[in-house]
Target: M48 family metallopeptidase
Amino acid sequence: MTPEILFYIIVAVIILDFLIEKVLDYLNAKHFDDPVPKELEDVYDEKEYKRSQDYKKERYRFGIITSSFSLLLILGFLFFDGFAAVNSIAESISGNSIIIALVFFGIIFFASDLLTLPFSWYSTFVIEEKYGFNKTTPKLFILDKLKGWALMIVVGGGILALIVWFYQWAGSNFWWYTWILVTVFTIFVNMFYAKLIVPLFNKQTPLPEGSLRSKIEEYAHKVGFKLDNIFVIDGSKRSTKANAYFSGFGKEKRITLYDTLINDLEEEEIVSVLAHEVGHYKKKHVIANLAAAIITTGFTLWLLSLFVGNPILSNALGVEEPSFHIGLIAFGILYSPISEITGLIMNYLSRKFEYQADNFARNTYDGEALISSLKKLSGSSLSNLTPHKAYVFVHYSHPTLLQRYKNLRGRD
Ligand SMILES: [Zn+2]
Model:
């Protein structure tokens, strides 16, 4: 194969990926106005339903604009040898390949982040604002951005530097060392996420004594779940959308409830959401997800090790002298169809897990309370009640509200 053919394969992969996404979006949008299933008629009143329709359509149009912009950006970059240009800037700064790789990815990351910044600003301060979801201030938005960048420089930069160093030192065996590094890092972050990452962005306070806490403790005791850490997070400082999640394991395990969830739901409903989260833990989903992520990472790195040294990857992007970072970029694009497939498998698995967690909540607490929480949460986030099957299959990590309703009522 010539570098030229590989170049056009890279271009084809990008365009095909875009087209598939757009077809799925289109199919989904065609069903925006379908009649609401009768089981879900009480989610919206007429006025709210109209608002949810407008919201979906506005998000859909905005999605077409942003993804088309990104497509033109990457294609323009490829056809005008952008990667080669950035590479020569990086090489003019240092002769050290770790520093070259850091500068190279630094420029690409910050340039693309700044170019797409107006879109995320518009999404937050125009669209989300219009539908009453946004609580972020411009100051908080900028602060979040800066903190995200700092985290990226320290964590992303550190890991990248180590990988390039492994590659220099161990050649194509670098993937083993990288796999171990990433695995240790993933487990560490999973374990201490709530203590290390969350405090950078949010305030977490233990759920205060009171009837909600007693109900939760009574439930936890009943199912034999040792739960010392129940925290409330100030999600309301960014958005009105509500959530709850589980993090960590062993002694570090904790359940985090958004303050918005506590405001929007009745106590029995909150306990039912919590019972669902406990279900994830009891059914070992936390460990299974972690194991799946580790296996996928190993596979990806192994595949990378087979190709990254091949000069054709660098040549296809217009760079004469092959290097690890250019090979990594080319591989990253060529790998995207495979990551689409692993993504499909992960979403399929995740939907299975959601049913299991729902069933756990129904069997150990109250299925009806969970149904009414799910309906309230869907309603208050103006979510789509009539998504297209293909769209659900590809993108949904959770079953649809209707599917969960039918499952909880035991007739699916
Ligand atoms: Zn879940």
Q: What stands out?
A: The longest strand covers residues 254-258. The chain has a mean pLDDT of 94. The chain has two domains: 3-201+283-408, 204-270. Residues 276, 280, 354, 357 surround zinc ion (CB under 6 Å).
